[in-house]
Amino acid sequence: MSATDTTLSQSLRAALRQVIDPELGMNIVDLGLIYRLDIGPQGVALDLTMTSPACPLGEMILQDVESTLRAALPADTAIALNLVWSPPWSPALMSPEARQHFGWAD
């Protein structure tokens, strides 16, 4: 990954911290819902999951992710969002700050 891609990746992750899982009141990055963020010549590809396959607000979160990425990227950038279930999400994927927020600190 080039220095430019690294900077863009960091910028996109910062932007995605504005996307909140409304059930948990925490951003999707610190919850560990972002599994992969690739930047390439074809655009940006993002693999993400939900805390549960039965998440009633999953579609809303996906829409928020897409609009956040569109606002942060040039208009002609292709965005591929992939909702994945493997590996299953668990609290172990959360940032230390998120685990502490929920009282699950190590």
Q: Can I get a quick summary?
A:
Residues 11-79 form the MIP18 family-like domain. With 106 residues, the chain is of the alpha+beta class.
Description:
The protein is α+β, with helices and mostly antiparallel strands. The strands form 2 sheets. A 3-stranded mixed beta sheet has the order 3-4-5, covered by helices on one side. A two-stranded antiparallel sheet has the order 1-2. The protein starts with a helix and ends in a 5-residue tail after the last helix. The protein contains 3 helices and 5 strands; from the N terminus they run αββββαβα. The longest helix has 15 residues, at 58-72. The protein has one domain (3-101): GMP Synthetase, Chain A, domain 3.
Number of strands: 5
**CATH class, please?**
Alpha Beta
How much strand content do the residues show? 15-25%
Q: Any idea what the shape is?
A: globular
Radius of gyration: 14 Å
Oligomerization state: single chain
Number of helices: 3
Q: What is CATH's topology name?
A: GMP Synthetase, Chain A, domain 3
Roughly how many Å apart are the termini?
Answer: 32 Å
Protein name: Metal-sulfur cluster assembly factor
Domain MIP18 family-like: 11-79
InterPro entries: Fe-S_Maturation_MIP18, FSCA_dom_sf, MIP18-like
Organism: Uliginosibacterium sediminicola
